[in-house]
Specification:
120 residues, 85% helix, mainly alpha, 0% strand
């Protein structure tokens, strides 16, 4: 007969899930920070661009100014996207590492929940 499970055993069993939740929470917070920073940048850049365009007198200068603005915004967006991809990769790697460690350390613990082998 299997011994009764203690609360500490259950906490140990579910700790990897709590760790995954923590990793995901930190990743989402980083994503939110990156998005917020980009939106603030975009808002401020649009205001600067609007002011600059209102001061320009000829069409050629306005088109050149607009092209520079688009390139700058595109560069900033690409930088943010790279940071988001890095954040996602870091979170994925942290989860993979944690699961490997958890599986290696917890296989004996999990065996007690397995049904006994069938007698032939």
């Amino acid at each position: 007969m299997k011994e009764k499970q203690q609360p500490e055993d259950w906490q140990k069993l579910f700790q990897p899930l709590l760790d995954i939740t923590d990793i995901n929470t930190k990743a989402v917070q980083k994503f939110a920070e990156l998005q917020s920073n980009y939106l603030n940048y975009l808002f401020e850049a649009n205001i600067r661009q609007f002011k600059a365009l209102t001061e320009i007198k000829d069409v050629k200068s306005a088109v050149e100014q607009q092209l520079e603005f688009v390139k700058e915004v595109d560069t900033k967006w690409c930088d943010m996207a790279e940071q988001e991809i890095a954040t996602a990769r870091d979170a994925q790697q942290s989860i993979n590492d944690m699961l490997e460690k958890s599986y290696a350390n917890g296989s004996d613990f999990l065996e007690q929940f397995s049904p006994p082998p069938a007698a032939h």
